[in-house]
């Protein structure tokens, strides 16, 4: 694997050279910032987006900076596309993954009585089902790396009421609890699970 340009001025302590990372939804918002930072510290990063033109633009931007960045077109609400994404990650990183950032999320802010069955299903599928399934698929790659890390991007809405909508809040609360369970269950495989609860809900991507 080629060396990335590490632009950090913090010294070798902060180097991620040799690390591999998957960031879902890495072409916008928090995900885009995470890809930037991981790649700037020297990690080889794979990301995904539903929009091919957006993904291509971001990859060109990162590669022009000397970053090791690759990507896949993937709608994480689709189980077959999630499986294809992880197959591409396994191929790109020779069956080993060090860092998995579960970032994709969406929201509809509504009073509880106004949610349709379709909206409820979409929020659960994108925010919770995809994260759970992707962790299942990522587990053998993280285990094979020797020491792996899963980072969930959650929300304070999963802990207290922020007026973000009851379905979104329920999804994030479930993500927080999923993190605790994976941290305990997969510790024996040298995989740690971490959750970051930010204060603002994700926009509808």
TrEMBL record:
Key word NADP present: yes
Q: Which top-level group of life is the source organism from?
A: Eukaryota
Q: Which Gene3D superfamilies match?
A: NAD(P)-binding Rossmann-like Domain (3.40.50.720)
Entry keyword Manganese: no
PROSITE patterns per UniProt: ADH_SHORT (PS00061)
Which InterPro entries does the record cross-reference, listed alphabetically? NAD(P)-bd_dom_sf, Sc_DH/Rdtase_CS, SDR_fam, TR
Sorted UniProt keywords: NADP, Oxidoreductase
GO-annotated molecular function: oxidoreductase activity
Family as reported in the entry's similarity comment: Belongs to the short-chain dehydrogenases/reductases (SDR) family. SDR65C subfamily.
The molecule here is called Uncharacterized protein
Q: Which organism is it from?
A: Lotus japonicus (Lotus corniculatus var. japonicus)
